[in-house]
Structure formats: C-alpha cells, structure tokens
Amino acid sequence: MGFQAVKFYQTGTFTVGNRLLAPDERSLQSVETRSNSINSGHRACQGCGEALGARYAIDAAMAESNNQLIAANATGCLEVFSTPYPESSWQVPWIHSLFGNAAAVATGIAAAMKVKGRPEVRVVAQGGDGGTTDIGFGCLSGMFERNDDVLYICYDNEGYMNTGVQRSSATPPAARTATTMPVGPEPGNVFGQGKNVPEIAMAHGIPYVATATVADLRDLEYKVRKAMKMHGARYIHIFVPCPLGWGTASHDTIRMARMAKESGTFPVFEAEYGEVTGVLKIRHKIPVEEYMKPQRRFAHLFGKNAHPETVARIQAIADRNIRKYGLLEDEGN
Amino acid sequence: MLKQTEGSKAVAEAIALCRPEVICAYPISPQTHIVEALGEMVKSGNLTPCEFINVESEFAAMSVAIGASAAGARAYTATASQGLLFMAEAVYNASGLGLPIVMTVANRAIGAPINIWNDHSDSLSQRDSGWMQLFAETNQEALDLHIQAFRLAEELSMPIMVCMDGFILTHAFERVDMPTQQQVDDYLPPFEPRQVLDPAEPVSIGAMVGPEAFMEVRYLAHAKQMQALELIPQLAAEFKETFGRDSGGLVRSYCIEDAETVIIAMGSILGTIKDVVDEMREAGHKIGVLGIISYRPFPLEQVRAALLGCKRFLVLEKSLAVGMGGIVATDVRMAVSGSGLKGFTAVAGLGGRPIPKSSLHTLFRQAEKEDLPPVTFLDLDWDAVNKQLEREKTTRRSGPAAENILHDKGIVSAKFG
Amino acid sequence: MPNKPFAITLKPGTSLANLTGTWRTTRPVYLDRLPPCNNACPAGENIQGWLFHAESGDYEQAWRVLVQDNPLPAVMGRVCYHPCEGACNRGQLDSPVGINSVERFLGDEAIKLGWKFNAPATASGKKVLVVGAGPSGLSAAYHLARMGHQVEIHEAGPLAGGMMRFGIPKYRLPREVLDAEVQRILDMGVTLKLNTKVENIALSMKQHGFDAAFLAVGAHIGKRTFIPSGDAAHIIDAVSVLRSMEGEDKPMLGRKVIVYGGGNTAIDVARSVKRMGAEPIVVYRRTRDKAPAHDFEIEEALQEGVMIKWLSTIKQADAGAITVEKMALDDKGYPQPTGEFETLEADSVVLALGQDVDLSLLEGVSGLEIVDGTVQVSPNMMTGHPGIFAGGDMVPSERTVTVAVGHGKKAALNINAWLNDATYEPAPKHELAGFDKINPWYYSDADKTVRPMLDIIRRQTSFDEVQGGLDETNALFEARRCLSCGNCFECDNCYGVCPDNAVIKLGPGKRFKFNYDYCKGCGMCATECPCGAIKMVPEET
Asked: What single DSSP character describes residue A130?
C-alpha cells in the first residue's frame, strides 16, 4: 500500500483553503480577492445558511464567467435581506421581480443577451425553496423545458422563513412550522410523497442538475463552475439550514447541513441529461436522529411524548436515499 | 403601402417594423393570430435579431418580458382576458420597475362564465396597474398605436397596453396602410434604456422599499402618466408628420361642436356609434361623439373641454363595475365634476353581445330626452334575468344561472340533471 | 445614482453602510490554545509548532523550532516514550500523529545535512558547572551555552551520554546518533571533561570559579534485593550488564539468563542478551498489564523470543537453577504467594529492580535535603544550597530521557535568571486544546504511518536498530496528520464560512482578524474552526 501523494494535507480538501495548497487547488472562498458577491452589511439573520450559500454560489459563478454575470432573484429572504432600500449588498447586476417568476425573468435576460450578441454574459436565477418548488415551479419547468441558457440555483431552507416559518413543499415530514404545528395525533408536517425538484429537473433531461450543501464548499464550487461551463438550462439545489426556522444555534448552520448529508437525509449528487453521474459519498454515516435532535422543529418527536415510529419513518426515507443514490462507499467488494 | 389584411396580421407587421428584440407569447384567443404571425416572422428570419419565446403561461410571458426589458431589450408580448389576469402580478411589477414593455391586449370578456368574445373587462381590470392604455378604434389605428406605443413607453420608461377589440378588430380583414421600415425607423429610435442590467455597470433593480419611500415611488409613476398626457399628443403630431395621417392622441371628437348630446366610448364601437350619429344628424339631432383613445392616463382636461359645450352625455362602455355601474363613466363624471352636466351610463356588449344600430338609435334618443336611469344595461333580457332572480328567491339550489337563462330562452332544450 | 429610477434601483454593494456589528451579543476572538502534545511533553517541546514547519516541508525550520527546547531530536526520536502521542487528539480520530517518528526524521536530517545550532548569544561572563553528561546535563549545558554562559561538563564516565549510552541498548539508540548530537552541543563551545568524577561539588565550584552548578548525575547504581542463594549463584545487576555491553568485554552471563523485574530495564537486558545468543527469561511478580515496562517493548521482546514468566518471584538462586514461586493477585491487585514452586535453569540472574543515584558528591554541602535517595529541589530546580541546581535522576521524578532533558532546560532557565539576580517566570500556560475544541470533520481520514521494523532474525542476532525511520515522503505525510490543535494553521475556514464577510485575511503567515463592524456574532467561525483557535466571548455592554 503506497502513501498518499505529498499533496495530501492534514485537512485534505475539506477546509476552505490551506496555506500549503497551490492557489489553484484552493477554494475560491479562500482567496482574498474573491468577489464577495453579497457584500457585508446585509440583513440576514446570524448564521444564515442562505447568505452563505448564495455568496459561495454567486462568487463561483462570477469567477467562472469572468464577472460577466447577471442575476435574477425571486422574492424571499435572500431578496429582502440583500436589497432593502436604500442599500444593496449585491455586486452583480441583479434584478428582483416577483416571487414566482425568477426563472422566467432570467430567460428574458438570457434572450436579451443573445439578441444583443453578448454571449459572454451569463445568467443565473435564484430563489428559495418556496420560490422554486412551489410558487415559481411553473416558470422553472418552462425554463427547463425550453432549455433556456440559465443556471437556476435554489437555496433550500425547507420552508417559508421570510414570512415567519410556514410550510413549503420542501418542508420535511413531521417538521414543525407555523402552519404545521406539533399538535394532534400526527404532529408536524404531513408525510407526503415529497417533491424532489432535482429529480423533476432531471426528468426534463436538462444538461445539468446537481445538489449541494453549504457544508461541502469544494463540491459546491465545483458544481457551480461546472454548470457555468455548460449552456442550456441547469439547476443546482443547495441545502442551506435556517437557524431561525429550524430552531438551531446560529453557529450550527454548517454542522446541520453536514449532518443532513451524512445521515442521507439530503443526498448530494449531480446528473447530466437526466442521468446521475456522481454522488458525494457519506463519510461518517449518522442516524437521522442525530441530525434531527438539535433542531427545535423536531423537538416534539423526542423527549417525554416521543414519536419513535415517526423518527423510524424518517430514517427509512434516509435509508432509501442511501440505497437509491449509492451514498455509502461500497463495503467489502 | 395599402393592403387588405387581418387586423392581427397588420398589427404583427407593425410590431415587426418596430424591431422588437424579445417577443414572448402564450396563446389565448383572440390574441393568437398576432403572435403566430410574429413567430413565423422570427422563425423565417424576416424579423431579426429577435428572440421569440413560447412560454408556459402569461405570467411567464410578462416575466420574460420584464427580464428582457431590464436587460435592455425591446420587449413585446400580447394577451387577452384570463391571460391578462393570470399575469396581473407581473403586470404591476413591470410598471413598478419602470420597464417600457409594449403589450397588445386583444380585449375579451373575463369569466366565469368563460367567454371568448369582446368586451373591455380585461384591460380595465388593470386600470390601476400603472400601465398606460391606448384603445384602437380601427385596425389602422391599432397598427399605428403600436408604433407610437414603443416610442411613448421608451420615452417615459413605462409599459403600455395597446387595446384592440378581440375578434372585431383582431380577426377583421380591412384595408390598412402599412408604413415602410424607413418610416418606422425614422419615428422610433433604438431603445435606450433608463436602467439596464449590465456587468459593466452593476445595479440592483427591484429593491424592497418601505414606508419611507414607497409613496414617492408611486407618485413618480403617477407623474410619468401626467407627463404622458403631454407626450401623447406630441407623438401623435410627430406621427402625422412622418406617416401622413392622424392616429392616436388622447381623445378624438366627432360632430361635437354644436352637439347637445355627446356619446362617449372607446374602441371599435365608435365606428357604429358614428354611423348612428350620422343618421341622427341627418334627422336633425344635435348629437356628437367623443372617443377616448388614452384610457390611462385619463385625459380629464381634454374630456372636460370636449364636453363643456354640451348639455348631456352618455358613456357607452363595454365594461361593468359590478356593484357600482360604469367604469369609464366614473372617470368621465370626474372630468366634468362641478359642471352640472347630466350624464348617463350604458353598459353594452358584454361578452360579445352585439350592439346593433337599432338599439343605439333608441338609446341615444332616450339620452337626448334624458329619459334614462343612471345606468342602462343595453339589450338586457330582463325576462330571463327576472325569472332567475325569482327562482333564486324561492329555491336555494336554483342551478347555474347561465344555463337556466339559456334554457329559458329556448336555446337549450334538453333538460339537464 | 442619477438617471436611475428612484428607490427601486440601487447602487451595488452599498450595504456597507449598514454596520451589522451592532447586532452582536458574543464576539469571536482568535487565541492560541495549548496543544495536548505540547502539554504532555516532559521536555517542553513546542511540538505543534515544529510540526507546523514540517508540514510545509521546511524541515530545517522545523528542526530549529524543535531544538529551541530539546537539543537531542535524533535521540528523542528513538528513545522517548512519547507521552505526546498518548495525549494527541488525533488518537480519538484514528491514531495519534507519529510525532516521535517525525522528530527522529528531523533529527536524522539534521545529522545527515550537518545542521548546526545558532551561535550563542553574547558571552555573559558567567561560568556554570554541569555535573554529568547525561540527557539532563547535556540539555542544561546546551541551553546555558545558548544564553551565553560558559559551560563545563564534568563526566565521571569515559564517554558522554549517561544512561543514553549505558542504559539504553544500541538496537534502540545507535551510538553514532548519540555521538553526533552530543558533538553538536560541544561544538557550541561547551567543554566536556570525561573521566572527571566530581567528588565534592562545593570544592569543585570553588576551585574552578563556577558561578553556579547543575547536578545531573544519573542513577547508575542497581538496586539489590535479598535472594537466598548458593555460593555459586551468579547474580548481577542490570545496569552493570548494560554498561558492559558498551565495552570490549561482554558480560559472561551464560546461556540461561534470568532477568528479574518488569520494567523497561529488565526488557532491555533481556533483549540485549538475546542478541548475544543467550536464552533470557524475564521473571516478574505481577501481570503484563501491571508491568511498568512499555507494552510495545514487551511486545517486541516477545516477538524476538524473550520468555516472560508473569506472576512469579524468585525464592532461591543456586548454581545453574532458580526456584520461582507462582503468585496470584489479590482483590487489590497485589501479588500474593501461592505456595506453588517451579525450577528454572539459570546460568545467571540479572536484577532489574531499579537504580539509585550516587549522591556522594553532595557530602558537606550545606542546606541540602535528601529524601529517599533524591535531592529535594524547589520549583526552580535549585537545591537548598544557593547556586546549586539539580535535575534528572537526582531529583524526585519519573526517570526518562525526556524528563531529564526537560529538567535540563528548566534548570538552565532558572540558573540564567539566578545568575542575573532575577526570577524566571514561565509564561502562563494557554488553556488546553482538548478534543472538544476540535472540529474533526475537516481532517482527512489518514491512519498513522507505520515505521519499518527490522527483520525478526536480525533483531534476534544483531544490535542493529530495530525500528526504522521515515523517509521524506512519509515524514511529510505524518507531519500533515497533525491537527494543529488550538493553533491557527491558516486553513481559511473562518474566512470562508462567515456569512457576513467579516473575517479579514491578512496573508500568508499573518493569519486573520475579525471585522467587528460587520460580525454579527453567529459563532460559525468558532464552530467550524478545525483546530479550536477561535473562542466566543460575551460582548461587552
């Protein structure tokens, strides 16, 4: 058994940067001259996963497009905290139109750039899970189906946080929200069939679909940069924990995202033209319980009036993800 | 160049002459022929450079137009009726963001009951959306108004609807004088946006504005429409210089100088009204017509000036403010408030109900005699209505009103259920 | 922004006007915590500090940081029982960083490449006598010389090294390694007088005008125990055996050698005589897990064919045989006789029951206090007699080379202070960077590099070094397994994970600082700091 190459370092590629890595091996976020596409002074809550995820993603998109980037933004936390008059945090040309139309607005921008003969200018659309999986779903699907030259980025914090933590179609089963209170015989959100927008995106056969989390920066940057190298409709679904909506500590945002991935709750994968081409394997598998327990939105499932059968159902969903996407390293063979 | 063509085709050609850069469309009757024609022109390479995008809804259509316009492209779309309502949120947004989008509204009733025929309920429902609304009387005017609309919208950086009666104009073959590309180019300079999404000079468009500045933003939208009141006649005058014909403007009067009774209306019905007026004039009636071209901004001064010489007026409108009465009439009354003029409202032609000259003759004569209730429902089948009202009084589950009425009228003979 | 729609269109990046730092209730602060390895090192090495340079492949700088505390890295890398590795946080992830093997690599590199110590500071004009050229004495001499003092070592034996030479077998510490590291110290200008036994310290100091003395005499006198024995029984102590290994005349022990004791010395003797062709049997009264010898040494001895009789005491020694009694542990874990006896062939019995120090040189020195054969010293290593300091085996402490080296350094610091009429105040210790301060996620899974071991046949027949060293590639790998506990290693995590861009990157080697104008105090930087170099503290009101 040989040793790993010298390139190996104590923290491998899991940290943001590293003094020992060559500059081109470091993440964009480690560079002093990164874009900071969302400037300081924005009004996101402490420990906001979406603020972080959006900076990660848009910085990467800016870098890949040589700063020739225009962003369309759905209504939601990201929009509200970044552009309250008279201050904007954005360093890219940016437009907010409505809650449900970011994909279509982006299509219009892309069409404008095409007709004006500016192919170097690239377009991203972005929104939260509400603006993507619910109200913006029609426009999103239309953009996919036409294969418009837009990268759509969904920042999924699993609910309508801006309006006070209501349920969205991305809210997990049993979770407490303001509209799925932990009361009655089946407390929290219903066990629906789920609405897996990355898979729905894949069903459109678009060139690129990927999921990512704020806990896996290198993977996220790789996916955004890869998506930006491609043309046509592309979709990246980024998991961004919300301390406010989930009832987690502000310092635990990345940890939560990591645990979502490591428990199989949130599968991290990429797909081209409808076929999965890669998964980010689980490094240290944990039970869903370990991921859920620090979150107050699941508190009713534990403690005095525990619902172990509900936790078991959620575990079964995670196990299904693990099987379906092959999230564990092959054991034995 | 004179040609016999369908209204929709004429409008499509005029729009093409305006060099739109992004066209997005979702089909809805009676708008379809316009976007079909444009789609073909783009596809065939006759309209270039231009992106024609088949979107999945009217909401998307307006949203794509918003994106394109914000990115500096001349954007156009067309819709009608339900489609306009479906895009309503984006309609308000486009004006709120000050994007000079031009949209044709092929006016059509709004359901339920679903109805594809003409009235003005759709565009009038967007009265307060911040869009300018120009109503065409003829296909020629529809064509001409589109050319003026791009100019007007881009001068003010505000969106504009060009309203033309569905089917009556859109599907009617008429002779039109199609301008040349050179004429249009002379009249309509390339789009120079007030604001644009450009990586060379980033801006953030669409900020969240709180109580500290929201009223000012709204007032500025209003102020722009006030500016439009001055600009519209100027552009019409320029238009005349370039194209050699009268088209557009705020209002257009007919036989009004000595009129004691003035009929006020918008859109294609003005033609029928003028015919009736001609006939009545021949019979010695002192009657005239005031056509309103610019519904928004509403030309209060011009309307007041036109009416001050008469004794009474009748607003004949293809729209109904349910629970109140006239919609256009309300604005007209506002224009003449304090003048002591007697005004009447006639709601007519809803859902494509024909407005025959005979009915107008009767109506106008009643108006002259001031023998009208404040609101008249022209050619309403009172018998059918009363029967239904009676049924509803006696039977809670009296069944669907429209079907009952059709049944009462004998149009439907089979008994349902 | 002229000509842009009022309010709805904004200038980019203008949110800088909004100082979100006012939201903060707790603030992050950078700090250096004490890595567990450093905390555990008896020689006071800044292990994390030198590994930091080794990680970047700057081995000379790593070595230079290392030798600021310990002048004998090549020796250490072989004989230290590396308590640092026992404390290493990485042990809770996979296995501890092979600190000892990297240290050896650095030590060997230094020898190979001829790295020298930096020249001493300007001469102080003070003279210090060091008694004993063992690890403690050499360490003190080195540090004192660096401080500019004139140092003279008086060594009773014929060669320098003390117990490193006469107590540790060659197969663990090749003598050329020891010689090289001793010579490097002498090259600084330290005078070494061999075969110079200090009979009376007070006299020696006075005669030669020493301003201070450091006593570092090793425990060279083997402890005896009473074993009923016949006249012909051949009983000898372990220290003598090991010492004689160094000379020309190898000890005559016969074929069947009984080694009595369970400490490292017992194992060393057994392994040494095994190499000389004998058949050693270690007899120890308790069990393997209670034996003071390091388990890896027992394991290596067993691999080499050393027999060990656990739970046995020698009752009688005769010519050619001994009688052992089986023992059993009682409830409290003490061995109790069972009355069961066994006879073992024995040409000789080596007693490895511990060693004492020859304290005769202290006779007549006033103010000294001697308890249980050791000199009592105050926390500054000074004996009750002003100017006379002591360390290593002479003072009550664990007797290892590493402890001795630590004593030497500590004594040197205090002697230096004393010579300047000052008091040495060690810098306050940083708070410990325990495993709970580490975010282990960020460290790649990488098990410890296993050092090559000498072929078993050669281990049984020669004194060649048993354990090999690392080469450059795997030494680097091993260094890079370091978690850098408690000390920023510029991984950029804080800079990257801050949702408010409130961390300023100061550039290579300069670490980071917080921009408190915008820091909202979410604490993500502290949680996601891999090594625990950020702490959240309550915001001042």
From this structure: I
